[in-house]
Amino acid sequence: MTVNPLLSVQNLTIDYIGAETDFRAADDVSFDIAPGEVFGLAGESGCGKSTIAYAINRLHKPPALIRRGRILFEGQDVLDLDDRALREFRWHKVAMVFQSAMNSLNPVLRVEAQFHDLLKRHRGYSKAQSRERAAEMLRLVDIPPERMRDYPHQFSGGMRQRIVIAICMALDPKLVVMDEPTTALDVVVQREILQRIDELRRSRGFSVLFITHDLGLMVQFCDRIGIMLRGNLVEQGTSDQIYHRPQHDYTKQLWASFPSLHGHPARLERASG
Amino acid sequence: MGAVLKSFAQNRKALTGLVIVAIIVALAVAAPWLTEYDPTRRVGRPHQPPSWDHWLGTTRIGQDVFARLLYGARTSLAVGFGAGLLITAVGTILGIVAGYKGGRTDEVISFFTNMVLVVPNLPLLLVLAAFIGQASPWVIALILGVTSWAWGARVTRAETLSVKQKDFVKSAEMLGEPSWRIMLFEIFPNVISIVGINFVGSVIFAVITEATLEFLGLGDPKTVSWGMMLFNAQNASALQVGAWWDILSPCFALVALGAGLSLLNFAVDEVANPRLRTGNTLSRWSLLMRQGEGRL
Amino acid sequence: MSFLFRRLGFYLAAFLAAATVNFFLPRLMPGDPIEIMFSSAGGDLSVENLEALKLTFGFVDGPLWQQYLTYLQSVFTGDLGRSIKYYPLPVTELLGRALIWTVGLMGTATLISFTLGTVLGIMAAWRRGSAFDVVFSVGAIMATSMPAMVLSLMALFFFGFELNWFPTGYAADPALDPAFSWQYVSSVVRHGILPVLTLSIVLTGGFLVTMRNNMINLLGEDYIVMARAKGLSNSRVMFWYAARNALLPTVSSLAIAMGTVLGGSLVTEVVFNYPGLGNTLYQAILARDYPVIQGQLLIMTLAMLTANFIVDISYVLLDPRLRSA
């Protein structure tokens, strides 16, 4: 483990407040992500992994409540940022790819406008400067730059998710949080997108927090993995450990639900190498 | 079902609305015990201001306004609930049949629904009522029922379309249940919240529209109702001669009934659509935030 | 484009339906339809004039379909017959004069209430659960269940008769000649304030609730969360991401709301003795002037369909998904 983690989540506890009782979505969760590292959070839906992802950019709304814990990014507690500092922090430091590829882009704004509002906000770019930057980013994900004049519905699901990734790259963030980025896509597109992210990560040097319920996919893609069960982080280790020597019963159960994959370790070539 | 009733009972808006409507119903039922006057008789001098003898004054032809208000509530409530029931029944049946059957049936029903939605309702009612002549409250309820179902049919159809995809409907189909049974026992109970919203909304609409038609001179002059009270008062230039009690009494009665029903409607909407619910959860959240129990 | 053409075809069918109601209704009533429609004309009508009137409404010798076609022909050539009360004034002319005032009243009130209701709805949804939200959304629901005439009568009583702030009738000072003079225009504005205000209050609630609920349903969408994650300002997220999308279903509900707007304005006119369609109609009902009552259904249906078509066009302009289709 590196001495200075990029992100250090410490004792994070988050409740969803109910009328009488609360639902504990994350219970005393701690983990670190080093610069350039790919960290995975795995678990069934509802285990609290998305809750943690949202907390990193402080995107929660009532009735979510952060009871305890710290989220240190480069040593600074994100939870202490005031509104202004928070808006500067968002996307500039931590960019996000959301679950539904179909739905992450505003359907009534052109793609270029969705680059421009970001770049204007954070870098004070003019429309022309934004367009230039957008073209550069779109080329990274193999989308013809002239298509930035189009609306989201004119792209396929896979293309839309690539556009989101291009928007993620626009400010050169330190960390990219990916909340089930490929669940809505078919397997071929899924693989293509992950490979693209991995290439970008290696060329641009950001860290990744990768969230999925698909443990098989995760082992191929991540350096280290945390396993979540009902709000608790029950096991943490390198992909190798999680794959070959799972400690917790739940992790073993998870593997048992991927018989074919587990039966053919030869297929598990780690894309990140 | 129990949970729905419970969340309804905990809803302050629902309770307030229920109390208001219950009071109006009670007043209407108890009318003969609350006033000694016959609402249709001349019982005092014309346009007397409120006094001990006539709590809300008298009309231009010397009828007691309070008595007319109490007995008029009977008409407003009867037409409101009667027509509301009819509108909801027609809308629900058409909506479920269109949504479940699909195909040609759906096309035909949807076409008519959309058409009725764009033909302006009040002018259509005016023409119908004008040809009927002096429409009694029951005739008004009937024509409201046959002309105002379109909105309900539309929302019920949309809801049916989503319920239709559910497993329990599919399995009932596999078991070879006849379609009327599926619509009645599988679909209907699952669109009940939409039906509830439709019903309360239709009651409000019927109360307002009945009063409006009567106010515009299409009612039967012998009827004792809030709409006829407004029509008579307006015709007697009550405001111009300063007889404000004659006009404001039915106005406030309509406002009270409307407010009660709309609070109920709001509550039904919140119970049916959890996304719209705020209530206790949020207040508890704010309390915890203030106490420093956590942050966001 | 094909979307708009489909809508036009649909509107034609709807108009035809309204005309059909007008055609069959007198024939469905017990008794002689001619008696029903023209009885109040009494002896004022000469025989030729009555014949001409009958022709307009399809009362010709021959089978029903022939009568129907005759009637449709007069409707589609813009002949809605003549008023019986104001004989020989053509119905189109009588209603046309009144239409201007109604359109002015409706247009202003719709503009005010739609803008106000939408903005308040956005703010209520954005701060949902707050005191602002509770007060405005409950208030709005109550306003929608308040009959237009009740609010108008109360406004007339308090601001017209008691406080004497505004005139209590007519669209302008009757002593003035219509002209584009400051005096006349300001008189029109002064006479219009109360009717527009009450109508706007009745309508604002509906738009507020629609917009609020549409917004709340959208706020969980990924593109809204992503907009916040991008660090955009609250107002950018609120207006360009949330409200801009919530506006689409709100605009489509505007089309249905036009019926309420129309109904409300009819009633408001009667209360304020405003010389629009509503008042003309009220007089026609009292006199049982059937050609006028029937004519108003067609003219108002036409007005509704036009309003709907304008809504369709703005919908296409607002939603890029429809534009390219």
By DSSP (H or I, 4+ residues per run), the number of helices of chain C equals: 13
Number of E-state strands of chain A? 10
Q: Strand pairing plus helix content of chain A: what structural class? A: alpha/beta
DSSP strand tally of chain C: 0
Q: Mean pLDDT of chain C, nearest integer?
A: 84
Order of helices and strands of chain A: EEEHEEHEHHHEHEHEEHHH
Number of helices of chain A: 10
- The share of residues in helices of chain C is over 70%
Tell me the name of the CATH homologous superfamily of chain A: P-loop containing nucleotide triphosphate hydrolases
Structural class of chain C: mainly alpha
Q: What series of H and E elements makes up the topology of chain C?
A: HHHHHHHHHHHHH
Rg of Cα set of chain A:
19 Å
Uncertain runs of chain C: none
Q: What is the level-2 CATH architecture name of chain A?
A: 3-Layer(aba) Sandwich
Shape of chain C: globular
Name the descriptors.
heterotrimer; A: 273 residues; alpha/beta; Rossmann fold; 6-stranded mixed sheet; 4-stranded antiparallel sheet; 10 helices; 24% strand; globular; disordered C terminus; B: 296 residues; mainly alpha; 14 helices; 73% helix; Oligopep_ABC_C (chain A)
